[in-house]
Amino acid sequence: MSLKKTLIKIAKILLPFLLGAFLIYISYTQFTTEQLDEIKGYLRDADYRFIALGMVLAMLSHLSRAWRWNYMLAALDKKPTYLNNIIAIGSGYAMNLIIPRSGEVTRAVIVNRTDDIPVDQGLGTIIAERVLDFIILLAITATAMLTASGEIVEFFKESIEVAFAKANPIKITTYLIILVIIVVLGIYLLKKLQLFQKVKGFLAGIKDGFTTIWTMEKKWRYLAHTLFIWFMYLAMFYVCIFAIPDTDSMPVSAVLCAFVAGSFAVAFTNGGLGAYPYLISQVLLLFGYSAVVGTAFGWIVWLSQTLLVIVFGLLCFVLFSMRK
Questions:
Q1: Contacts of residue 130, Cβ cutoff 8 Å, sequence gap at least 6
Q2: Which of 69, 173, 243, 285 has minimal CB crowding within 10 Å?
């Protein structure tokens, strides 16, 4: 393996982790000692019955995902046992905590070992389901933006007013020129490094994957499982608001916006390390919640779901080793 490829692989592992560590650092340096003690108090006194219920709902979504996968694999004349699918998915989730986005490859490799399904075909089915999941997430994001339009507009309005009050025309013009230069250079580099063609190829693959969903047998069952999976995700997040007295009356708009922030945070760092509680706390600021409450709530949700993934993943790794 060349040095360049080795460095790229190391960067893929280290950068998300360093980003998460950085977000944890900037998040907690803003708090006083008293505020940190208050966050610890929220974690200590939370009603963990609701947290446990959230973990059960999340587990149901994982089991549904394993069942849904067979509908896509059936189009390849492959049908692993339900337990093998569970093992692959649980192991994939655990791997994502170590190396972001490595779970998809892990899933494909495991069903290749257990059921002799070619890795490229397994990855194709996983990419197809990710496409549909991303579309569902975009729909939830749009709904969140609409329901919280008042808070969002007010936030940007205040931010723009503050920015213009502090800025002067010369600085604004300079920043605009710099922005245009960066965009032009970015497009040039994309084409020069042939990344533009890779992006086009990736988008074409997404299109093919989404088309496969609509041409497969039992597509309506597949879509029903997809809706169930995302309903469980939302339900898991929603029940957790009752674990803290200060968030038990959180409006639906705030729940949706915080859920979306957490969902995107998972893609930035190792399973959302640092990014998940930080982004959720920043979103809840728009709805009048303090940074202390928002941070405590974000950590409660993230820690409970991460614990579930670790336990579930370790169990799946053990079962995989036993079956081989």
A1: 104, 209
A2: 173
The verdict on residue 297 lying in a domain is yes
Full domain range(s) for residue 316? 40-323
Alpha helices in 216-290 (DSSP H): 219-240, 252-268, 275-285
- Rounded (to 5) percent helix, strand, coil in the chain: 85, 0, 15
Structure tokens at 34: 């008293």
Please report whether residue 16 resides in a domain: no
Q: For 219-271, what is each residue's pLDDT tens digit? A: 889 999 999 999 999 999 999 999 999 999 999 999 999 999 999 888 777 78
Residue at 24 is within a domain: no
Residue 101 binned pLDDT confidence (cut-offs 50, 70, 90): confident
| Extended beta strands in 146-240, E state | none
Tokens standing for 319? 């079962």
> How many domains in the chain?
1
> Tell me: the pLDDT tens digits for 292-309?
999 999 999 999 999 999
Does residue 7 belong to any structural domain of this protein? no
Quick check: helix, strand or coil at residue 261?
Answer: helix
Between the CA atoms of 224, 230, 231 and 237, what dihedral angle is there, to the nearest 10 degrees? 170
Q: Tell me the CA distances in angstroms from 170 to 89, 166, 167, one per residue in order.
A: 54, 12, 8
Across 45-77, b (16+ Cβ under 10 Å) vs e yields: ebeeebbebbbebbbbbbbbbbbbbbbbbebee
38-42, 70-74, 267-271 — most confident range? 38-42
